[in-house]
């Protein structure tokens, strides 16, 4: 590659980086400005950050929304990963005549949009509320129960399990480990990158989920952070500086988890086994 080609490549990459970074820069700058400055498109950092934070705290119950989103996301992540990993492990490791048919039906469920099953789900949770109010409508459990596992996660674990060294399981069985012992003591530690990637994907999807919590969570004290941001933007005269600050606060947990597990996430998505 010639020197001119290298310079052209670097210039192109710099321009692309600026284009992708600009929305984040505008978001951060807007959080420090007044609503009028945000709507006028100001790109200069302001001095209204503390005032925006005070207005945010006084306007909405930010702590409650963050707590609800955290509870829902952590519960959904751990339970869904446990179920999906067991299913993916079973589909790949254990042989049976009908498993491929079941797996194909499972994959077909990915073609059904969530909006098509939302009303039946709401009716089902309405019935559940009559018998088990603790997991019925307007409870935190109802916000994550429809997502306790997904066809994508099961598919993801099964595909990664194809590269899992089966000899380790045979050695574990010879040493007297039960099937659950082989799963938790051999499979889980070996597939930690896959679990990390699945955890990041599940947590981010749960944290950013908006439609189903909007339907099923009806009390203000149960609202999640996406619902809180939506309510801020739907007021008669929205304060865009406050909204931008709320978006930054809502982005921090997912960004921190991603950067902390970034190496494992990349390895897990590539299907590597360590």
From TrEMBL:
InterPro entries tied to this protein: MetI-like (IPR000515), MetI-like_sf (IPR035906)
Sequence ranges assigned to domain ABC transmembrane type-1 in this UniProt record: 66-261
BP GO annotations: transmembrane transport
Keywords from the named record: Cell membrane, Membrane, Transmembrane, Transmembrane helix, Transport
PROSITE patterns cross-referenced by the UniProt entry: ABC_TM1 (PS50928)
Similarity field: Belongs to the binding-protein-dependent transport system permease family.
Name of the protein: Lactose ABC transporter permease
């Amino acid at each position: 590659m010639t020197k001119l080609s290298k310079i052209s490549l670097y210039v192109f990459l710099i321009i692309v980086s600026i284009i992708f970074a600009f929305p984040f820069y505008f978001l951060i700058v807007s959080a420090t400005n007044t609503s009028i400055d945000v709507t006028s498109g100001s790109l200069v950092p302001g001095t209204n950050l503390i005032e925006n934070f005070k207005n945010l705290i006084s306007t909405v119950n930010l702590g409650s929304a963050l707590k609800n989103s955290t509870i829902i996301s952590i519960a959904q992540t751990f339970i869904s990963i446990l179920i999906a990993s067991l299913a993916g492990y079973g589909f790949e490791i254990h042989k049976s005549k009908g498993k491929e048919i079941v797996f194909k039906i499972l994959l077909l469920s990915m073609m059904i949009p969530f909006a098509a099953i939302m009303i039946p789900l709401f009716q089902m949770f309405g019935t559940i509320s009559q018998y088990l109010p603790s997991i019925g409508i307007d409870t935190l459990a109802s916000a994550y129960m429809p997502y306790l596992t997904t066809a994508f996660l099961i598919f993801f674990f099964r595909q990664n399990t194809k590269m899992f060294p089966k000899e380790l399981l045979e050695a574990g069985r010879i040493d007297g480990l039960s099937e659950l012992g082989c799963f938790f003591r051999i499979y889980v530690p070996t597939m930690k990158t896959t679990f990390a990637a699945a955890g990041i994907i599940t947590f981010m999807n749960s944290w950013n989920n908006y439609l189903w919590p909007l339907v099923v969570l009806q009390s203000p004290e149960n609202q999640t952070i996406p619902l809180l941001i939506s309510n801020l933007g739907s007021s008669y005269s929205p304060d865009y500086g406050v909204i931008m600050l709320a978006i930054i606060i809502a982005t921090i947990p997912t960004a921190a988890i991603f950067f902390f597990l970034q190496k494992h996430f990349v390895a897990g998505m590539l299907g590597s086994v360590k």
